[in-house]
Design brief:
Keywords: Hydrolase. Pfam families: Hydrolase. InterPro entries: HAD-like_sf (IPR036412), HAD-SF_hydro_IA (IPR006439), HAD_sf (IPR023214), PGP-like_dom2 (IPR023198), S-2-haloacid_dehalogenase (IPR051540). This is HAD-like protein. The chain is an alpha/beta fold. It has two domains: 157 residues, Rossmann fold; 85 residues, DNA polymerase, domain 1. It contains eleven helices and six strands. The chain has a six-stranded parallel β-sheet, with helices on both faces. Helix 10 links the parallel strand 5 and strand 6. Helix 3 crosses helix 4. The longest helix is centred in the first third of the chain and has 25 residues. The radius of gyration is 19 Å and the shape is globular.
């Protein structure tokens, strides 16, 4: 069976995916490099402190992106945002350039471009490609180069990459979802948004897209997932957290193909 959607079939749809956190385990990609950085008392004990540092880095990035969005400022190169947040966190911990120099910091920023897929993602998307009739498209904030690097390093089989840089818009602006649908020539009832961030799905739902929430260990860590309260903008929920028998994307793929 073809791995590309059949344009002659009326059920043809597009699935838009958030990338980092939803499809990729950014934390497991960062931790080895962080643990290899020059030692410092503020990073001891290493295992717990380095993990917390990575989480704070990610949270700081989100705060920066949302603040720029609220101020109606244009999106910034994601590498610049990551570097500024990194420098701020290191300054708070008393880690100067004489300890973690520019080379160390630049390598850490580059590591965001080299990510691994969550275990359920590639087999699920391969199944959808071969047995379903869907375009598989990234729709995420960041640069096109970031998405190219992540797609290559992770091996996730997307059909197309749509970055906020390319579209000139930033999530959760409803216009970015509308622009993505416009480019695929598909109406909202033929488009799905998959993400591990509730704010992303709330915006997608506001323009008529079907929404799928995949719960990840690293995402929405300070958000209480109340499905009864969130049902208005979460159509489907799948548990993709680490541990136990949580199939996440695999369960999602089965349901999408059976429709």
């Amino acid at each position: 069976m073809s791995s590309s959607p059949d344009p002659g079939r009326p059920s043809q749809k597009a699935i838009f995916f958030d990338l980092m956190g939803t499809c990729c385990n950014w934390l497991s990609s960062l931790l080895p490099l962080l643990q290899s950085c020059p030692p410092h008392p503020s990073m001891q004990p290493m295992e717990s402190k380095v993990r917390q540092f990575a989480i704070e880095w990610r949270e700081g990035f989100f705060k920066e992106v949302h603040a720029r969005f609220e101020r109606r400022e244009p999106a910034e190169d994601i590498d610049l945002t990551h570097r500024r947040v990194l420098d701020s966190l290191l300054k708070e911990r008393g880690i100067g350039l004489e300890i973690w120099d520019d080379g160390v910091r630049s390598a850490l920023v580059r590591q965001w471009h080299l990510q691994v897929a969550w275990p359920d993602v590639i087999p699920a998307l391969e199944k959808i490609r071969h047995e379903g009739n869907y375009f598989l498209i990234v729709l995420a904030n960041g640069t096109t180069r970031l998405q190219l690097d992540i797609a290559q390093s992770s091996g996730i089989p997307f059909h197309m990459l749509l970055s906020s840089e390319l579209l000139g818009l930033t999530k959760p602006d409803p216009s970015i979802y509308c622009k993505a649908m416009e480019l695929t020539r598909l109406p909202p009832n033929k488009c799905l948004m998959v993400a591990s961030h509730l704010y992303d799905l709330e915006a997608a739902k506001s323009v008529g897209m079907e929404t799928i929430y995949v719960h990840r260990t690293t995402e929405d860590v300070d958000v209480k997932i109340d499905l009864d309260r969130q049902h208005k903008y979460v159509d489907w929920y799948y548990d993709g957290r680490e541990g136990m028998d949580r199939k996440g994307f695999l369960d999602m793929a089965e349901r999408l193909i059976s429709r």
